[in-house]
Amino acid sequence: MAAHRPDDAAFIRRALELAEQGRGHVEPNPMVGAVVVRQGRIVGEGFHERFGGPHAEPNAIAAAGGACRGATLYVTLEPCTHQGKTPPCLPEVVAAGFARVVVAMIDPDPRNNGRGIQQLRQAGIEVQVGLLEAEAQRLNAPFVKLTTRGLPFLTAKWAMSLDGKAATRTGDSRWISSEPARKLVHTIRGQADAILIGIGTALRDDPLLTARPPGPRVPTRIVADTQARLPLQSRLVLSAREAPLLVATTDAADPARRAALQAAGAEVLLLPHERGRPSADPARPEPVEGRVSLKALLQELGRRRMTNVLLEGGGELCAAALAGGLVDKCLVFIAPKLIGGRHAPTPVEGDGIPTIADALQATHTTLRPLGPDALIEAWL
Predict the structure, then answer these.
(1) Distance of alpha carbon 135 from the chain centroid
(2) Is 293 in the same domain as 178?
(3) Which end of the chain is more exposed for a tag (fewer CB within 10 A), N or C?
């Protein structure tokens, strides 16, 4: 196989930048970018702009026109070979007359999964695969997980002080994070399929959980609520006819409560119980024994083709999701504040681990400033 050329990485990186522009608009499809290069110069670009719309390759080919013949196509995901909402990209790529195609990653969809690469080579086109593959995999991690495991990608998000507190000992948490951090959270919400909280957070904070201003997606607000205790006068329920609300509960909930929530516009989803020992703290709103099964909830969301779920707490729900191996990434907003207090809540509660050797270790992290705060993105 021929070696990558010196400029290949730069052009694939540009394709990844283009693909990112589809975030929130194309799901459950993958984000894909494509760049056409002739004699070292970009002559056409494109990306998958919206679900059901043309894919990246046809858009880039249309932009480049006749300059495609003998040129190189850089694309972040293997061109598709199957009919979906749009025709397959592969025939158009072959017909355009490319001499070479550079692909960042193989498509995990079993309908494709290497077939596109094989057909390009059979057409006499030089193909190279795997350049900046890790970056491409991270970009489309939600698509990969839904395609290969049938589960949405779960991002746990929390804000905390320098000393790791999510609120004061009185429960006050407004606002730990700065305005730039809160603005980014609304952007992230507007790109998610669903936002998940526990009943403890719903009762304590009475959140609305909408994106302000609205983003490209209208996320389903989900409350894990074993006994259907979400108040009918809560902001979540009062807005249930304007923004989707799903109450994930169990057969432990009073049928009359379930019916009242449904009558108010919420969807009530009956799920199995989580099994485990009872909580040692009777003050906890959701004891371990009898809690809504988060795995069953995520499986149902996967069946609904949801790709991105944002977990916004609280500490017990985060602990349960982490302990169950359900969290894929953590977004941690750290404010330059010290709170203290042995009874002040932390972002991840539960029983914790007995030894440092048992700690969950992030596999990839980034750190960036955000106004006075810092944002750590940690992949698990």
Answers:
(1) 15
(2) yes
(3) N
Residue type, 184: L
- Separation of alpha carbons 378 and 188, rounded Å: 16
CA atoms in the 13 A half-sphere facing the CB of 101:
31
Q: Are residues 136 and 223 located together in one domain of the fold?
A: no
pLDDT in tens, 46-100: 999 999 999 999 999 999 999 999 999 999 999 999 887 888 899 999 999 999 9
264, two tokens: 């108010």
- How far apart CA 306 and CA 142 sit, in angstroms, is 9
Q: For the chain, what is the total number of helices (H) and then of strands (E)?
A: 12, 14
For the residues of 23-45, what is the DSSP string, one character each? TTTSTTSPP-EEEEEETTEEEEE
Backbone φ and ψ of 73, nearest 5°: -105, 125
> Which residues 6+ apart lie within 8 Å of 245 measured at CB?
220, 221, 222, 223, 236, 237, 239, 265, 266, 267
Give me the pLDDT at residue 275, please: 67
DSSP bridge pairs for 47: 33
Give the rounded distance of the alpha carbon of 343 from its chain centre. 32
Whether residue 3 is contained in a domain is answered as: no
Annotated active-site positions, please?
57
Q: Is residue 2 part of a domain?
A: no
- Give the HSE-up count for residue 173: Cα atoms under 13 Å, Cβ half-sphere: 22
Ramachandran angles phi, psi of 373, nearest 5°: -95, 180
The residue type at 147? T
